[in-house]
Specification:
By secondary structure, this protein is α/β, with parallel strands linked by helices. It is 45% helix and 15% strand. It is built from seven helices and six strands, in the order αβαβαβαβαβααβ. Strands 1-2-3-4-5-6 form a six-stranded parallel beta sheet. Helix 3 links the parallel strand 2 and strand 3. The two termini are 18 Å apart. 30% of the residues are buried.
């Protein structure tokens, strides 16, 4: 964040870039979940990003729960952390520190839980989506709630053979496109925003 903040500040100062030309997304990492921790973490992110006139464009809760061993109290504790974190994001949005708020890696269960108490619906749910991980149920839920689905790793991170898949290769050859272009088009036609990595 600090490196990006320095680059943006320099670009804005030189006139090469204007604030409205960039859309900045950052995340609340699991170590900073909880009301007070989230408030502090996002304000620190804003400082590192150079203050960003108008606030951070989008802040996401990175994961629905911390990476801790499951025990009898973990589910209740994680649910409480999600709620506190979301309430902090709503407050930050209300205060103008962030413009939009959302989630990342929330499946249907976590998203339904959040929607039961959220005053503000998430603008985005950012999850891994590609032909081998289609997330059809989640897609239906977010569309019914007016939430944008963002697909990270839409090309399968180049590690799962997706770009060599025979069915996708055949489609690409027929359409005179690359497999990557076919996958990105497939996502866009479903109304899913791909973030190619």
């Amino acid at each position: 964040e600090e490196g990006l903040g320095n680059a943006l500040t320099a670009a804005f100062s030189s006139g090469k870039l204007q604030r409205q030309d960039v859309f900045v997304t950052t995340k609340v990492w699991v170590d900073y979940m909880g009301y007070d921790q989230t408030l502090a973490s996002v304000r620190e992110s804003l400082d590192k990003l150079g203050g960003l006139d108008g606030g951070i464009d989008l802040v996401l809760i990175h994961w629905p729960c911390p990476f801790v061993p499951k025990d009898d109290g973990a589910i209740e504790s994680n649910s409480k952390l999600r709620r506190e974190t979301w309430e902090a994001l709503e407050k930050l949005q209300q205060d103008g520190v962030v413009k939009q708020i959302g989630v990342s890696n929330f499946g249907e269960r976590h998203l339904k839980e959040l929607l039961a108490y959220a005053k503000v619906k998430p603008a985005v749910d950012q999850v891994e989506v590609h032909p081998y991980n289609q997330r059809v149920g989640l897609e239906k839920l977010v569309k019914s709630e007016g939430i944008r689905l963002e697909a990270y790793s839409p090309l399968g991170k180049g590690r799962i053979g997706l770009l060599e898949d025979p069915v996708l290769t055949s489609i690409a050859e027929t359409k005179k496109k690359t497999v990557a272009q076919v996958i990105l088009r497939w996502l866009l036609q479903r109304g899913i925003t791909p973030i190619p990595l």
